[in-house]
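Suppose you are handed only these lines of text.
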Amino acid sequence: MTDKPFTIVRRDDLVPLCPHCGGELTEVYMRTKGLGFVEAQNVLYFCPHCMKVLGFGQSRMI
Ligand SMILES: [Zn+2]
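From them, the structure of the protein bound to zinc ion can be written out as follows.
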């Protein structure tokens, strides 16, 4: 285990690229999977260019 400091730099001026098609992710599509609006839902993030999934997340709708 190293104790290297980890720095997070906010760069709102940079546009991330899709790892699948290389398209600029000026926006990311998301859709929720699951029923019910009270419980936490699984959120699917995907590329608007190639529709490939970029990642999963959880959103709590309270
Ligand atoms: Zn893509």
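What can we learn from it? The pocket of zinc ion is lined by residues 18, 20-21, 23, 47, 49-50, 52 (CB under 6 Å). The longest strand covers residues 53-59.
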